[in-house]
Write a structure and sequence with these properties.
The chain is α+β, with helices and mostly antiparallel strands. It has two domains: 72 residues, Glutaredoxin (3-Layer(aba) Sandwich); 134 residues, Up-down Bundle (Glutathione S-transferase Yfyf (Class Pi), Chain A, domain 2), CATH 1.20.1050. It has nine helices and four strands. Strands 2-1-3-4 form a four-stranded mixed beta sheet. Helix 4 runs parallel beside helix 7. The radius of gyration is 17 Å and the shape is globular.
């Protein structure tokens, strides 16, 4: 039995959960696992990050590696197209979202959500890089009606896991949503939230977030 280890406030954890649920893959979940740097944890996740997947008596780390493994092992329903260029287009969107939007905005998460101040210059750099990333994403995303085209794909799972958090960070840091001017994005987000797996992950993320806030306040 596959076992996903991480916590439900993590967008990378939820990325893998979305794939597991969309594919209907039987699995267990330990949602109480936090990143760590002790030897025992590093034996499971070499960088000390979550999520990681327990499989065949071992573990597999890095969310993109995990979802690619799941796609190969459980090819139905497919989240990557059969045709090579179309598959590459989905992977290109995933890279744009994660490298040029999520990881850029992540530089501010500590200050925005965990009271870890960042320098004003950092904020200016992030704002500039996010603007470039949003433009690149808008050029490649098709919204027809899904991010990569007519078929629902891995790009939609990745987008749903990351983009609302990027938008939230931008609103808190800069007072504006970088996707607000693109009506296609709002329509896509509503369409994604209507999927049962997406609605479940979103609801459980919110519940975990509220529980975390309650513990912090107490």
């Amino acid at each position: 039995m596959l076992r996903l280890c991480g916590f439900r406030v993590s967008n990378y954890h939820n990325k893998v959960r979305l794939v597991l649920l969309e594919k209907g893959i039987a699995h267990e979940e330990d949602d109480g696992v936090r990143p760590a740097q002790d030897a025992a944890f590093l034996a499971k996740s070499p960088m000390g990050k979550v999520p990681y997947l327990e499989v065949n008596g071992g573990t597999l780390a890095e969310s993109q590696v995990i979802v690619e493994y799941l796609e190969e092992r459980f090819p139905e329903p497919p989240l990557l197209p059969r045709e090579p260029l179309a598959r590459a287009r989905v992977r290109e969107l995933v890279a744009l979202i994660e490298l040029h939007l999520e990881l850029v905005a992540r530089r501010l998460y500590g200050g925005l959500f965990f009271a870890q101040p960042y320098a004003e210059e950092t904020a200016r750099e992030v704002e500039r890089e996010l603007e470039k990333g949003v433009r690149a994403f808008a050029r490649r995303a098709r919204f027809a009606p899904w991010l990569a085209g007519s078929e629902f794909s891995l790009a939609d799972c990745v987008g749903f896991a990351h983009l609302p958090l990027v938008a939230l960070a931008a609103r808190k840091a800069f007072g504006r949503d970088p996707f607000a001017e693109d009506a296609r994005y709002a329509q896509w987000l509503a369409r994604a939230r209507a999927r049962p797996a997406f609605a479940r992950v979103d609801e459980e993320r919110r519940a975990a977030q509220a529980a975390m806030a309650s513990r912090s306040a107490g």
